Amino acid sequence: MTDPIADYLTRLRNAIMAHHRIVEVPASNLKKSITKILFEKGYILNYKFVEDGPQGTIKIALKYDPVTKQNAIKSLKRVSSPGLRQYTGYKDMPRVINGLGIAIISTSKGVMTNKEATTEKIGGEVLCYIY
Question: Where does the secretion signal sit in this chain (predicted)?
Answer without folding.
Answer: none
